[in-house]
Write a structure and sequence with these properties.
Length: about 300
């Protein structure tokens, strides 16, 4: 395999991982722009969403083993319900300063992680890949079928979210409430309701990312910490509060991570990706796309 094929293969893998980071970063961005809240528990919400689907896929509920696609949808729906519940808990934090917000969301993240340990155990497990691990050769480039599925499903979810926000009536209301809460409220838009829906959608996207990641990672209660951190990094890299920025930031971070692992050393992957991210932010402090200013009320 020549260097070009290796680079393309690495790039595709980076886009796949970056797609997961982008889905998680979208949750950070949506919640930040709607509530002014930086949700540091989002990694644990990702983890809980993964369990919500995998327990059905592995037959851990009443011995009922469901197809992966059905488990995937269940994970999204159940995590959206969790998002609605958590929004009511997080709502008061949006009015406090950053330190209290930080402590509150991190604290609730630990609560979610410990609940997962109590309910499902601390050891974790591997998940069988529904599509198998035999790579597909495309013009001399070996690509795992799951990577292609991961990229395709993530792209559909991102496209669907953008169409929903741009075209649907409730999507437009969510955008209006995020842009100016007081004006939106005066126009009759239920701001608390749109915030709750925003939180639910963010949680649903996190569950989708978790289900797509499950066959390529080790599912355990601690899995949310690393992904949450990288999703937050993508959120900052693309531009805090920017929906396109979250997508771009996630993809860029994933590609940086894959390229540094493939061509430098896997031992320095995380460090190199974060160093490059810092350099980018030194040049563009607002992120690649630009930060969205949020006025807290």
């Amino acid at each position: 395999m020549n260097i070009v094929s290796i680079f393309i293969q690495t790039l595709i893998g980076g886009i796949g991982i970056g797609s997961l980071y982008a889905l998680v970063a979208l949750g950070y961005s949506m919640i930040y722009r709607s509530m002014g809240l930086v949700n540091f528990a989002h990694g644990q919400i990702f983890m809980i969403g993964t369990y919500f689907g995998i327990i059905w896929y592995r037959g851990m509920v009443l011995g009922l083993q469901l197809p992966y696609a059905v488990a995937f949808i269940l994970a999204i729906l159940l995590n959206m319900v969790l998002g609605l519940i958590l929004e009511r808990i997080f709502r008061p934090l949006a009015n406090y300063d950053l330190m209290l917000m930080l402590l509150g969301t991190i604290g609730l993240g630990y609560v979610l992680e410990n609940m997962a340990v109590i309910i499902w155990g601390a050891e974790g497990f591997a998940v069988n890949n529904p599509l198998g691990n035999t790579p597909i050769m495309i013009s001399g480039v070996a690509v795992l079928p799951w990577t292609l599925l991961l990229i395709g499903v993530s792209a559909l979810l991102m496209l669907g979210l953008n169409v929903f926000l741009a075209k649907a009536k409730i999507g437009k209301a969510m955008r209006a409430a995020a842009a100016d809460r007081e004006t939106a409220s005066a126009m009759g838009i239920p701001v608390n309701g749109t915030n709750a829906l925003t939180f639910a959608i963010g949680a649903g996207l996190a569950a989708a990312a978790g289900m797509l990641a499950a066959p390529i990672v080790y599912v355990n209660p601690a899995m949310g910490a690393a992904v949450g951190l990288k999703g937050f990094a993508a959120f900052i890299l693309g531009g805090a509060g920017s929906i396109p920025g979250a997508i771009v930031g996630g993809l860029v971070f994933g590609v940086l991570e894959a390229v540094s692992a493939g061509f430098i050393s896997s031992a320095y992957t995380k460090g190199i990706a974060f160093v490059i991210m810092i350099v980018v932010l030194m040049i563009r402090p607002g992120g690649i796309i630009g930060e969205v200013t949020v006025d807290k009320v």
